[in-house]
């Protein structure tokens, strides 16, 4: 199967949108495009699972390579393992849900859907790249359209947020690029190379790794809201239109975690061991500090954005623990958080569209007037606080078990601190649920609200279904990603 | 016998009922949802009674010892460390089979009662969906094969309880109570989780029977490694057990984690009967009993269990004597009775007659489930009739509600421990175990038994005797659906005491005989008679003796009435300390320091570029000047510094 279809399809649907200007035409094309993306990724998943030789062995499947610029040894090489497939599925689901949520985007609809499709092309390209240069290219492709999405369709202090987001992410990209250049010039093979498996086979000397690892780690880390470089998250998420928030929190924040796994830990394993205590401390701070900061927020989007800081902290925390279970937990947390936060932003969008406010204190009793939306709100909240049966529980528990395997005092203290966040999470989630959907009905006008329309219902159901699949049958996703995490783990064990 | 199929049905039926009623209850099964839920419960109650008969009477025993049967076990999530995995399965042993019967029977009664009680509710079908969810989760909890499985269902019963306490969600007090219940138990579960992490990583397994195998043998590798290392003077094993017990104490509303239980009475009364009296709140006792072969090896953990239980028993009983909300009195009495079960485990030995405390605890759990749910359903009937929770609005109801009156009286006698009702037998065993295990706890328990009789009859006299108030019920005592469960539970309250419980449930599976020691019974029965007598004098007729007594007690009465200010203490810690000194600073730091740095970097860049932008003026004369100045500078450097 040729993986490049994953890039071609969104680009084609983006281009197909351009000749049209009516909302109805544009959104239908986008919906068809997004549905095809989802189908294609399901086919990919199926073929991958069926193919024992290439599929579940831990090596990359469906590899292909085209020379992009030979003199500099830049190739467009692609290939996937279980981890990439999990991320691709996540992208496809979030994009389809995002298109459905934006069904009535009247303002400049052509440009809006065009940019959404372009973003998804960037994400797919990123997840299938096995050449760090093209990977970097797609990373940038997934950043720049966000400036426009927030700047044009956003709300609140949108210019500030858009600028901040893009500047911080661009700064992060610069760091990533330094890290990548270090690999390119200094790898042990003696050739200039961007190819991941070649770089992994010919690692840098330990000293060089120690020098370049922080660049790659912090660079990618900013995407995953690494403390203290997380402040683009709350502002960016809150100002973005619903679909962009979903994309931003659901997929963009995962680009960083994925990059750290693929580039930082796999290619520089010795440095990963060396820096692991720092990673653990920073991410434990992000987890606890993020959750305490969430407790004080009153705007629903800020609540979800700050809680994202806390939840993606688990991704870095799991990676920093360097055990098989914790890394698998980190991968599942990426998928889980992507789905959950997309669902949360979607439902916040639905609530906002009706109440015209996002302040929790100004709402109340929605469960009485719009039960479907409120139930989805509740489900998103319960996923966030890690209720068994939903995906968050699986991910968090894997991270906790994996972390406790490390016997060191630092690891133990950090793990206890991280587990404490489950209480704080319960506090802020139940507070939001209690204020927004429970309690007395706030205004008479609330009784006039229409419950979710078909497009909103479909979007919510898709996301909830995916959350339930992970939550109820976690052995499926665990089976899918295990060869990939084992390959990373083997690298780490072989190079202590 | 094929236990796998039957016990799997036991779980799947209520789950299916939850899904069906949850999704289509509002649209399709609006009227039928109560009947569907009740029918499902009827089926699984019959199933579990059948399973219990099969297990206890036919094929549970091997050489006179009850063997655990793993009816089903499948790997749900594999961790990449040793044998750690979360398995989902069904474990049948004496205590889990006993719990199956308790849960399904009480749940069935509550379902039937709710058919009448909740008839006019707008969210009738949602209510039954939640009840099904709860029943499913609770059944899943007791049949767990794996400590992580129990943790998962533990959380699920927590959320069902949350949903049902907040069922009347437009009432702010109900919302607050549901939040409080969830957060307090979540805090306790944090301990449970860390305890599981320690146990799991140290023993290399999460499987209950393997954990018990590896730790119940003092020569085993895991036991030695867990008892030799330690932290802050306690061994790793002690830490693990105390942390696990913390989770149990939270769920079972033990002091000082009890504060959620009285508020949980905001939920519909049948829910209180099911969740907050008979089933979920005893989960903590069940957890300790499940791990009892490990617990009894650790003296420190055992004494923690014993003293937390004894303190809770006495503490709650004192508060119960002062409350006037009928459901809150019952809530504190529940806490007190669970305290009995807990310390009974704590003072127990292991094996045979030494394990009397274990048997007594389970026996009391069993009998208490029936008479306490009877009391709650009776209270529900009263509230239904009077439209108030407050005892001061009641009085003289014995003439209005004869069935409720008779059954309530019976249950009061049972909980007070009057022979030959079930409560007498189980409490007697507990007291005997305490007498043999720990004298101090025995005297606390004896005194609490007197208090129990007093506050229960205070409640009884204030509701059913005293002066009649004016009632406006628009209906009679209640429909048949509400009376039938009261009658069935009364019968159970009479009968269950005569079960030779020690033959079936014991700490190591080997049955033994218990005897009634007449001499031993004198003291407790005397305490009970005194308690009832005092209540009769003070409350049988309305008078000012209680008020005078309360005034005479002064500060003590007030402190008990205000529940010893524990709630205020928690509010102080959460709002004044955690919110003010952790939450607010975190939010402030983020806005001003972390984000401030980002903005400062941005504005500094902006300022610098503003300062230097004049240099790119586009004026050729200026550029020429820069050029000459630069050339001159270079020339000077060249001339003077080169040499």
Question: What does it look like?
Answer:
- The complex is a heterodimer of chains A (496) and B (643).
- In chain A, a hairpin with a 4-residue loop joins strand 1 and strand 2.
- Chain A is built from 20 helices and two strands.
- The mean pLDDT of chain A is 89.
- Chain A is mostly helical.
- Chain A starts with a helix and ends with a helix.
- Chain A has one domain (5-494).
- Chain B is mainly alpha-helical and 643 residues long.
- In chain B, 71% of the residues lie in helices and 4% in strands.
- Chain B is built from 26 helices and six strands.
- Chain B has helices at residues 3-24, 33-59, 94-117, 124-142, 147-165, 172-203, 208-215, 221-228, 236-251, 260-263, 269-278, 283-290, 292-295, 299-320, 326-346, 356-386, 402-416, 422-437, 439-464, 480-495, 501-504, 518-539, 545-553, 555-561, 566-612, 620-641, and strands at residues 61-62, 65-66, 69-78, 85-92, 230-231, 234-235.
- In chain B, the strands form three sheets. Chain B has a two-stranded antiparallel ribbon. A two-stranded antiparallel sheet of chain B has the order 3-4. In chain B, strands 5-6 form a two-stranded antiparallel ribbon.
- In chain B, helix 9 (236-251) runs antiparallel to helix 12 (283-290) and helix 17 packs parallel to helix 20.
- The longest helix of chain B is centred in the last third of the chain and has 47 residues, at 566-612.
- Chain B is globular.
- The mean pLDDT of chain B is 88.
- Chains A and B meet through helix 7, helix 12, helix 14, helix 17 and helix 18 of A and strand 3, helix 5, helix 6 and helix 25 of B.
């Amino acid at each position: 199967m040729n993986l490049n279809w994953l890039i071609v399809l969104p680009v084609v649907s983006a281009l197909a949108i351009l000749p049209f200007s009516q909302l109805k035409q544009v959104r239908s094309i986008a919906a068809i495009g997004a549905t095809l993306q989802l189908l294609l990724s399901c086919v990919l998943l199926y073929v991958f699972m069926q193919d024992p030789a290439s599929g579940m062995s831990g090596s990359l499947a469906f590899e292909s390579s085209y020379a992009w610029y030979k003199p500099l040894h830049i190739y467009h090489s692609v290939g996937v393992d279980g981890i990439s497939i999990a991320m691709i599925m996540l992208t496809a689901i979030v994009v389809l849900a995002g298109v459905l949520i934006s069904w009535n985007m009247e303002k400049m609809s052509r440009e809006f859907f065009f940019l959404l499709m372009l973003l998804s092309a960037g994400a797919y390209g990123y997840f299938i790249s096995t050449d760090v240069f093209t990977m970097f290219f797609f990373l940038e492709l997934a950043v720049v359209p966000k400036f426009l999405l927030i700047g044009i369709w956003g709300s609140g202090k949108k210019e500030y947020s858009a600028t901040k987001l893009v500047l911080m992410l661009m700064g992060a990209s610069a760091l990533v690029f330094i890290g990548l250049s270090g690999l390119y010039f200094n790898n042990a093979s003696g050739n200039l190379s961007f190819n991941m498996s070649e770089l992994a086979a010919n690692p840098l000397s330990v000293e060089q790794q120690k020098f370049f690892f922080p660049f790659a780690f912090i660079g990618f880390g900013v995407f995953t809201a690494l403390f203290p470089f997380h402040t683009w998250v709350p502002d960016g998420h809150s100002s973005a239109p619903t679909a962009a928030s979903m994309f931003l929190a659901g997929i963009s924040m995962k680009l960083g975690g994925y990059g750290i796994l693929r580039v930082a830990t796999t290619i520089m394993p010795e440095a990963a061991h060396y820096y692991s205590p720092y990673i653990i401390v920073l991410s434990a701070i992000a987890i606890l500090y993020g959750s305490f900061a969430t407790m004080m927020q009153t705007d629903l989007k800020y609540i979800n954005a700050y809680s994202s800081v806390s939840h993606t902290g688990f991704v870095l925390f799991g990676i920093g623990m360097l055990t098989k279970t914790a890394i698998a937990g980190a991968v599942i947390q990426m998928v889980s958080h992507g789905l959950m936060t997309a669902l949360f932003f979607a439902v916040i969008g639905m609530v906002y569209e009706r109440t015209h406010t996002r302040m929790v204190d100004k709402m109340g009793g929605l469960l009485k007037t719009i039960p479907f939306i409120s139930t989805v709100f509740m489900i998103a909240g319960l996923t966030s606080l890690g209720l068994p049966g939903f995906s968050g529980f699986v991910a968090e528990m894997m991270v906790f078990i994996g972390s406790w395997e490390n016997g060191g005092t630092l690891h133990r203290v950090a793990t206890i601190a991280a587990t404490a966040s489950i209480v704080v999470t319960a506090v802020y989630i139940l507070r939001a649920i209690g204020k927004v959907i429970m309690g007395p009905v706030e205004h008479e006008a609330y009784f006039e609200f229409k419950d979710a329309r078909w497009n909103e219902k479909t979007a919510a159901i898709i996301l909830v279904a995916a959350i339930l699949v992970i939550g109820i049958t976690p052995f499926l996703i665990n089976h899918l990603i295990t060869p990939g995490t084992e390959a990373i783990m083997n690298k780490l064990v072989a190079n202590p | 016998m094929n236990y796998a199929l039957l016990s799997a049905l036991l779980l799947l039926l209520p789950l299916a009922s939850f899904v069906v009623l949850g999704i289509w209850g509002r649209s399709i099964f609006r009227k039928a949802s109560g009947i569907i839920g009740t029918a499902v419960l009827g089926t699984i109650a019959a199933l579990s009674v059948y399973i219990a008969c099969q297990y206890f009477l036919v094929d549970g025993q091997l050489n006179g010892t009850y063997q655990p049967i793993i009816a089903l076990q499948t790997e749900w999530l594999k961790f990449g460390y040793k044998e750690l995995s979360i398995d989902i399965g069904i474990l049948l042993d004496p205590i889990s089979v006993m719990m199956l019967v308790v849960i399904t029977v009480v749940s069935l009664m509550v379902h039937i009662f709710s058919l009448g009680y909740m008839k006019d509710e707008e969210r009738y079908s949602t209510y039954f969906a939640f009840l099904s969810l709860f029943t499913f989760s609770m059944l899943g909890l007791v049949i767990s094969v794996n400590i992580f499985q129990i943790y998962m269902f533990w959380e699920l019963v927590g959320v069902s309880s949350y949903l049902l306490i907040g069922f009347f969600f437009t009432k702010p007090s109900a919302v607050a109570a549901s939040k409080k219940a969830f957060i307090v138990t979540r805090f306790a579960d944090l301990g449970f989780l860390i305890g599981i992490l320690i146990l799991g990583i140290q023993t290399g397994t999460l499987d209950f029977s393997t954990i018990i195998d590896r730790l119940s043998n003092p020569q085993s590798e895991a036991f030695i490694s867990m008892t030799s290392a330690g932290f802050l003077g306690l061994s790793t094993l002690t830490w693990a057990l105390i942390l696990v017990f913390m989770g149990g104490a939270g769920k079972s509303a033990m002091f000082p984690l009890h504060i959620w239980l009285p508020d949980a009475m905001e939920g519909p009364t049948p829910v209180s009967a099911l969740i907050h009296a008979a089933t979920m709140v005893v989960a903590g006792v069940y957890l300790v009993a499940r791990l009892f072969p490990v617990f009894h090896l650790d003296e420190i953990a055992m004494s923690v269990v014993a003293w937390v239980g004894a303190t809770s028993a006495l503490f709650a009983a004192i508060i119960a004597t002062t409350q006037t909300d009928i459901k809150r009195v019952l809530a504190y009495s529940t806490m007190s009775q669970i305290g009995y079960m807990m310390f009974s485990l704590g003072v127990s030995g292991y094996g045979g007659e030494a394990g009397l405390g274990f048997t007594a605890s389970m026996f009391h759990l069993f009998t208490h489930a029936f008479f306490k749910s009877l009391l709650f359903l009776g209270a529900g009937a009263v509230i239904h009739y009077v439209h108030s929770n407050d005892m001061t609005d009641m009085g003289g109801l014995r003439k209005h509600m004869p069935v409720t009156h008779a059954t309530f009286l019976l249950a009061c006698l049972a909980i007070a421990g009057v022979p030959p009702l079930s409560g007498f037998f189980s409490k007697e065993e507990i007291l005997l175990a305490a007498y043999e295990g720990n004298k101090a706890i025995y005297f606390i328990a004896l005194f609490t038994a007197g208090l129990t009789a007093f506050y229960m009859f205070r409640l009884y006299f204030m509701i059913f005797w005293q002066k009649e108030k004016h009632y406006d019920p628009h209906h009679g005592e209640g429909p048949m659906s509400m009376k039938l469960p009261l009658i069935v539970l009364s019968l159970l309250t009479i009968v269950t005491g005569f079960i030779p419980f020690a033959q079936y449930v014991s700490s190591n599976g080997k049955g033994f005989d218990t005897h009634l020691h007449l001499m031993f019974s004198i003291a407790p029965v005397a305490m009970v008679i005194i308690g009832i007598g005092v209540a009769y004098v003070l409350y049988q007729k309305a008078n000012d003796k209680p008020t005078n007594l309360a005034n005479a007690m002064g500060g003590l009465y007030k402190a008990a009435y205000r529940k010893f200010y524990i709630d205020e203490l928690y509010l102080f810690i959460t709002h004044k300390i955690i919110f003010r000194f952790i939450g607010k600073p975190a939010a402030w730091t983020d806005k001003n320091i972390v984000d401030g740095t980002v903005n400062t970097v941005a504005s500094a860049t902006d300022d610098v570029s503003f300062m230097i932008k004049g240099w790119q003026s586009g004026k050729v004369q200026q550029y020429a000047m820069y050029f000459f100045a630069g050339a001159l500078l270079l020339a000077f450097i060249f001339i003077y510094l080169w040499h």
